[in-house]
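Consider the following input, taken from an annotated entry for Calcium/proton antiporter (Actinokineospora spheciospongiae).
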Amino acid sequence: MNDTTTTPALPRWSLAVPPAAAVVLAVTWGRSLGAVLLVLVCLGLGGAVTAAVHHAEVVAHRVGEPFGTLILALAVTVIEVALIVTLMTSGGEKAASLARDTVFAAIMITCNGIVGLALLVGSLRHREQEFRAHASGGALAVIVALVTLSLVLPTFTTSTPGPTFSGAQLAFAGVASLVLYGVFVFVQTVRHRDYFLPKGSTSDDDHAAAPTNRTTFTSLGLLLLCLVAVVGLAKTVSPTLESAVESIGAPVSFVGVVIAMLVLAPETVAAVRAALRDRLQVSLNLALGSALASIGLTIPAIAVASIFLTGPLLLGLGAKELVLLVLTVVVSMMTLVTGRATLLQGTVHLVLFSAFVFLAVTP
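Applying the prediction step yields:
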């Protein structure tokens, strides 16, 4: 088949923003941010998020669901994991709980923040939306298994002192995480791909011409560049965030929550746009898939990185986090078992997310 320009070209802004954001990252990396540079970083970060969502949608339209949402979730998580491992290997004892805090924040952001926001905006526009309960319920089951094996059990094991794993236990958790995530991806993309397709979609995009191979590969490359810029600019702005957090009397760990929100911004915007188009299944695929990728890739990565780490690796959640996690699991089960979403479910999830953020500021 001749791959000619049968579809509209990419907008000029979507071609210009990713390299511009990369230039901003290169100019500001490792420097203290004054007022001008801070504004520049914020503009680059916002532009990179917007462009990432646009290019992710182009790729998703070409490869179809659920491959499109999987590509976005997987790409963001791989870059996020690389950032976590880099900070852990250079952060010393201060980074002992970085992986735990980041993964837990990602779970709360995706399962309560992104899901709640998608349910809220979707129900406000469409009153009630349908999704495939067996698909989202299956994803939730894998999330519960992963988070229990990786973040709950270390609090109760006795082989090592504190909320830590022994070497053998960490290796088992890493292998189990890879196996569960790998099987989920296989089921989502091969064995039961139809389970994860949008139900009752009314989007006009379903009938639009698919982008050409050239356009798709261009968008894929620009998507990866955008995600590198998002994570890098989020890291660049973190010292300024630390100062702001200290000025309001919040714990330093809250900076990790803010960084996680910035890194997950592309998935958030994409999930909300999908919900507005009455494609709630796509929103849930993004949110739950990001949570799965965050645990399923982070734990094996830190299991390997732990070989080179000298300090303790704190993985077990505290009592407050365990309560929030149990509440999130119970509410998510009640939300996903029905296959229908209304304003009420979205509000409940957003209230839980607000509680997480509030308690992160005032523990």
